[in-house]
Amino acid sequence: MGLSTHVLDTMNGCPAAGMEVALYSTDGDNATLIKRLVLNHDGRTDAPLFDNASLRTGTYRLRFDVAGYFKARGVQLPEPNFLNQVSLDFGIAHADQHYHVPLLVSPWSYSTYRGS
């Protein structure tokens, strides 16, 4: 299955449909954009970020537009927002395994883990 992500809006108790996400490869302080996408009705991508054949060992970053998502839902956020863009830096050590990077998020907190 490669690399996938899923975002749940814990403020509203629903998938974060419409959230913008960007995937980067990283090398130290340098980040190279691989793709940008918008999450579907289930808070997921329509296809894996990388399939099994494309996944490579290395370091990556997922950047989630948290403030943009909550503003689009009509949530009144302070300026500046507590959370704007949430960036998760992670490593792929075994390209033959599935890596799932879920994000549980509200305007004031987030958590993540390596899912299945």
Automatic annotation (TrEMBL):
Keyword Hydrolase: yes
Reaction(s) catalysed by this chain's protein: 5-hydroxyisourate + H2O = 5-hydroxy-2-oxo-4-ureido-2,5-dihydro-1H-imidazole-5-carboxylate + H(+)
A single GO BP: purine nucleobase metabolic process
CDD domains, A to Z: TLP_HIUase
Positions with a binding annotation for substrate: 6, 44, 113
Residues in Transthyretin/hydroxyisourate hydrolase domain copies: 3-115
UniProt-listed Enzyme Commission number(s): 3.5.2.17
Keywords, sorted A to Z: Hydrolase, Purine metabolism
Family annotation (InterPro entries): Hydroxyisourate_hydrolase (IPR014306), Thyroxine_BS (IPR023418), Transthyretin/HIU_hydrolase (IPR000895), Transthyretin/HIU_hydrolase_d (IPR023416), Transthyretin/HIU_hydrolase_sf (IPR036817), Transthyretin_CS (IPR023419)
Superkingdom per UniProt: Bacteria
Pfam families documented for this protein: Transthyretin
PANTHER family: 5-HYDROXYISOURATE HYDROLASE (PTHR10395:SF7), URICASE AND TRANSTHYRETIN-RELATED (PTHR10395)
Function: Catalyzes the hydrolysis of 5-hydroxyisourate (HIU) to 2-oxo-4-hydroxy-4-carboxy-5-ureidoimidazoline (OHCU).
NCBIfam families to which the protein is assigned, alphabetical: hdxy_isourate
Subunit structure: Homotetramer.
Family label: Belongs to the transthyretin family. 5-hydroxyisourate hydrolase subfamily.
Protein name according to UniProt: 5-hydroxyisourate hydrolase
